[in-house]
Amino acid sequence: MGEPRVLRIATGAGYSGDRIEPAADLAQRGRLDYLVFECLAERTISDAQLRRRADPCGGYDPFLEARITAVLDACRRNGTRIISNMGAANAPAAAQRVRQIAAAMGHTDLCVAIVIGDDVLDICRQQDVALDNGLTVGALGERVISANAYIGAGPIAAALAQGADIVLTGRVSDPALFLAPLVHEFGWDMTDWDLLGKGVLIGHLLECAGQLCGGYFADPGYKDVPGMARLGFPLAEVTADGLAEFSKLADTGGRIDSATVKEQVLYEIHDPARYLQPDVVADFSKVTVLETGPDRVRVTGASGTARTGMLKVSVAYHDGFIGEGQISYAGPGAVERGRLALEILRERLVALDALQDARFDLIGLDALHGAGLSRGALPYEVRVRVTARAPSADIAARVGHEVEALYTNGPAGGGGAVKTVRPGVALASALLHESQASARVVMLEGVSA
Amino acid sequence: MMLREIAHARSGDKGNTANISVIAYRPEDYPLLVADVTAERVAEHFRGIALGPVLRYEIPSLGALNFVLSDALAGGVVSSLALDAHGKSLGSAILSMEIAGPRVTEGGDR
Questions:
Q1: Is B20 helix (H, G, I), strand (E, B) or coil?
Q2: A131, A210, A290, B106 - which has most CB atoms within 10 Å?
Q3: Is pTM, for the whole model, over 0.90?
Q4: The complex's ipTM?
């Protein structure tokens, strides 16, 4: 008997704007079976839908070209398959772009698969689906931008079974991007809740990339992280029983140990015993973390129970415009002058009764947590920040105009004014039965030069 | 003693709900977290920020607590007007909580 088969899966991105160098390094030196790029945040897909409306060939991840170009040669050389939700709102267009890039790089035998079916806007409109904020899709009418369901691992695993070298998806659950290759390679049954729960934990730990390796962890003097400028991304070695060891490449910065892993186990989790996923209800409540070497950690104890059958749907809709202005005050009396500026702005903006809601903050004093936690510590400088929602772009623009006008109409010594206006987008959630979102796989074989 | 001396924390967001994990650096300090960092005290610490109920989950195998603060993100990351719309800074804020130091009872057992 040889050693048990070990699958090597790494993360190439934890969000769309993530750094690309660690992914290129993993593609070259990681001896990877799979490289997974997780690039869709809650807001990202509605932005992508708006881009697709403006351009039928757009709407996929803006860094798709840069990422694929950076890793494709190494992945082809090393037999590494790529999985990503960089398809965003337009996986077919993303796949065509990848095929063009591959052809230009001389990889004419590439098999690209797309997973479609997460766009459930038509179904939500037909059924006038209820949202968690009390509204319905129908009541929002033309304000609705998009409705995307969080698809599970099944279709991605099916694409891998059909021979895909690269799988591009739109909205899928983030852990499913990592669970799918485990299901495919190890033949896990999609009703083996224990294994699926273990796979979800592996995906959950990997999905934020650098965060497992000490990114978003450092607190000098308490939690020191070496070499952060060269922070590496994580790599999991997984066996068929769902046991996983996590590490990063030698000569990369960061740290991966029980402390960094524990923070990630609980990141964005509510009830640890019931982490709702499209494939399984995962149970992380008995997870243990064991350090097995320098920058090497074994994680055990995850399990799961039967999935609910309901898919979370994320619905985005237009919600007015947001205007913002900022200006700074420094030196003796900075806080008092900043407060005076806020009083003036409040009075001037109240006259615009079309403002729907507004915030008046002093950055450096109480902008993040209000007056309660800042305990009145006096800073040398503060930054006035006013932001408000308005029904039109013109009214929203008045917020920044009034802040800028403090230069000649406000307290002494204000500097560095900036102003912005942006369209407001709101998000709400709904639930749809899994039978109503029929995800499917489209294979695009070969690449025409 | 400040909570920061014995624990680290990280916050995350889902919609308008924030979660904050609080993790003991040393397993032996976990009972102190369980005793002192109650849901009620966390709700009080974040008064005016967490506008809904605060739930606490215990995860002894990690030496960690997980707090779920509903209605704590001014509407959620997409629509919030807050400077820190994700509530990412809440994890640092919880570490300023004052807790009792390690307890020494007669007989020397903690």
A1: strand
A2: A210
A3: yes
A4: 0.90
